[in-house]
Design a protein that fits this description.
Layout: H1 2-23, H2 34-43, H3 53-60, H4 70-97, H5 105-120, H6 123-126, H7 135-153, H8 162-175, H9 179-183, H10 186-200, H11 203-216, H12 221-226, H13 240-247, H14 250-253, H15 264-279, H16 281-296, H17 301-321, H18 328-331, H19 334-359, H20 366-377, H21 380-389, H22 396-406, E1 413-416, H23 419-432, E2 439-442, H24 451-458, H25 463-472, H26 477-484, E3 489-491, H27 499-502, E4 505-508, E5 511-514, H28 521-541, H29 548-568, H30 571-584, H31 589-600
Parallel strand pairs: 1-2, 1-3
Antiparallel strand pairs: 3-5, 4-5
Helix pairs in contact: 1-4, 1-5, 2-3, 2-23, 4-5, 4-7, 4-19, 5-19, 5-20, 7-8, 7-10, 8-11, 10-17, 15-17, 16-17, 16-19, 17-19, 19-20, 22-23, 29-30, 30-31
């Protein structure tokens, strides 16, 4: 009966978010890493460090879903995982509201569901459940860990210790998906683990260690799968050294240096600003009140310390990495910290409604009725977040795919700078397999083990160009022209494309084609006409309002185009692309400065780009 009751509660909490997430899931891979994880799921490949072996296995199971493209199947799977996270955290909230026995039992479930639905509708939670990514899976596992740990902490010496084993297995699996996000929960868990140790002794923790180890066995997937050479095999962890390189994420450690990010105080302030905007200031104020209540009540104090420390380590953990505003991967770190604020807000509401019930004993149903009303009101969060979060009509990456991949000439070589272009290319090609003749070279990832070796082995004509790039850190004009004599060669425009190279390229598709001789007026005129028509077609096909992250991609491409046109002296085209960029972001500093310089420039004369180039 208890199991049925728990299942019913979980269903009530989880089914509405599941419906919301499924109806707003993306039919196509989104930006950022989504394309990469589509490529991973297509044949159980290996993603960027730390490898995420569990994600490869779980997301690969989307191939079993019998409807839609693989990207949509993964998004539906993520929707289910997001709903599981909501259901688990609602059960954890309900149990926590029983701490100190100050919130009436009849109020605990509706308030717990209200708190869970409120965070389920935030951008941080919702967006992870509608796109191919690892964070919905991570949230489901960590919320199960939290729920199981809170539950076992309420047990007495005669109680059931099995939830501790469930928590340990889920934690081990979470470490095999995103080990940093999982490890952040270790210190907060000590507030509850110490009590469990005192109640049950040390023996259950021996079994728990075994369950954690069982979850970590998932890492064996990496060398086993790497040896089979899947479509995506980043880092090639088939040897002990490369396995360690991938799992420790050494490729990203350089980004944690003190010069790579803003001051810590500024980053933490950004974290708090986004938290307030996403949860609403009223939730933060209620959370402060609930934290005060929970810490003041002796029998509830350890739970208050657990949730407070949980919020602190996840907020500080994100700030320590350098918060990137607008990056949904960065915001995913807030999912657990939001849960902490929500449970405190729910605790405050529970105490106040319990006091109201005592003050009006003649209306015993008043408190529960208000609790149910709070749960229904929590759905208003959906309206607050919908415009920036729903991907129900998202087709933008598919629109870009024509110019990024589908329409390229046969046997093209594409040299790509932007990681999102790289991931989008991999995802589209893994899903469609339509352009096996095209070679995409991911320039930022060439330091990954064996990546260059694979290119050189399969296509020896690339060897001189790649050798030159690795030695000099820049593309060689001579080697590019030499390769262009044999195959169509394209370069993605970027701030790393120097002035010398600009004279050898013209816009074509969403890249710049390398010419075998200096650009002529006829070449540029023809290319410019095609360039203008292509952007008109892209804007005609992208739904309105433009999705925020698509807007960022458009802004960057217009900026890069404007650097090229200004660099080669095409003042008219440069102004056109600058205006297009400023229409997306009127406050873009470099574009505003470039616009003023172009107004005063002599037509046909290149201008110095150093003042307008982002370093």
């Amino acid at each position: 009966m208890v199991l049925t009751s728990t299942f019913t509660k979980a269903s009530i909490a989880g089914i509405p978010p599941l419906i919301l997430y499924a109806l707003t899931a993306s039919g196509y891979a989104h930006w950022f890493d989504s394309g990469e994880f589509v490529a991973v799921a297509a044949d159980f490949g290996i993603s960027h460090p730390p490898g995420q072996p569990l994600a490869a296995i779980v997301l690969g199971a989307a191939n079993l879903i019998p409807i839609g493209a693989i990207a949509f199947r993964i998004a539906i799977l993520c929707a289910a995982l997001g709903a599981i996270a909501v259901a688990a955290i609602a059960l954890a909230f309900e149990k926590t509201l029983g701490a100190g026995d100050v919130v009436r039992p009849s109020l605990r479930l509706p308030i717990a569901i209200a708190a869970a639905w409120w965070i389920a509708g935030t951008h941080a939670w919702w967006f992870q459940a509608v796109r191919p990514e690892v964070y919905a899976l991570q949230a489901a596992l960590m919320c199960i860990v939290i729920e199981r740990l809170v539950r076992v902490s309420f047990s007495n010496g005669e109680g059931d210790v099995r939830p501790l084993y469930h928590a340990a297995l889920a934690f081990g699996l979470a470490l095999a998906n995103h080990h940093f996000l999982a490890a952040l929960a270790v210190v907060p868990a000590l507030w509850l683990v110490v009590g469990v140790w005192r109640t049950f002794g040390w023996r259950p923790f021996v079994w728990s260690a075994a369950f954690v180890a069982a979850g970590l066995v998932t890492y064996v997937f990496l060398p086993l799968r790497a040896s089979a050479e899947p479509f995506l095999n980043l880092g090639d962890p088939s040897s002990p050294g490369r396995f360690w390189w991938v799992v420790t994420a050494k490729a990203f450690q350089k980004s944690l240096g003190p010069d790579a990010v803003a001051p810590f105080g500024e980053r933490f302030a950004d974290v708090m600003l986004v938290t307030g905007e996403d949860l609403h200031i009223a939730t933060l104020m209620a959370g402060l009140l609930g934290a005060y209540f929970m810490l003041r009540i002796k029998s509830a104090r350890k739970y208050g310390l657990f949730w407070l420390t949980l919020w602190l380590v996840y907020a500080l953990g994100r700030a320590s990495l350098g918060f990137v505003s607008g990056n949904p991967d960065a915001i995913a770190y807030f999912m657990i910290s939001y849960a902490s604020i929500a449970v405190f807000a729910g605790f405050a509401a529970g105490i106040l409604l319990s006091a109201l019930a005592e003050a009006v004993p003649s209306q015993p149903k008043l408190g529960p009725a208000i609790g149910v009303a709070l749960a229904l009101l929590a759905t208003l969060q959906v309206a607050r977040s919908a415009e920036a979060t729903s991907l129900a009509t998202f087709v933008d990456t598919d629109v870009f795919d024509d110019g990024l991949r589908r329409n390229l000439p046969p046997r093209s070589v594409v040299l790509v700078h932007n990681p999102q272009t790289i991931f989008r290319y991999w995802g589209g090609e893994a899903e469609e397999g339509s352009r096996p003749d095209v070679t995409m070279v991911p320039l930022p990832l060439l330091t990954y083990p064996k990546l260059v070796e694979r290119f050189v082995t399969s296509e020896p004509e690339l060897k001189p160009l790649l050798r030159s790039y690795l030695l000099d850190g820049r593309l060689s004009a001579a080697e590019l022209q030499s390769l262009a004599a044999a195959r169509p060669v394209f370069v993605e425009m970027d701030v790393r494309v120097d002035r010398e190279l600009m004279d050898l390229i013209v816009p074509e598709q969403l890249y710049y084609r390398v010419l075998t001789a200096d650009t002529t007026d006829v070449d540029e005129t023809s290319a410019m006409q095609a360039h203008t028509e292509q952007w008109a077609d892209i804007y005609a096909r992208i739904p309105r309002p433009i999705e925020p992250h698509t807007k960022t991609q458009l802004l960057w491409r217009h900026y890069a185009d404007s650097l090229y046109f200004a660099g080669v002296g095409d003042t008219h085209a440069a102004l056109r692309t600058v205006v297009a960029g400023l229409a997306l972001n009127p406050h873009a500093r470099e574009l505003r400065l470039l616009r003023e310089a172009l107004k005063e420039a002599t037509p046909g004369e290149p201008i110095d780009l150093s003042s307008f180039t982002i370093q």
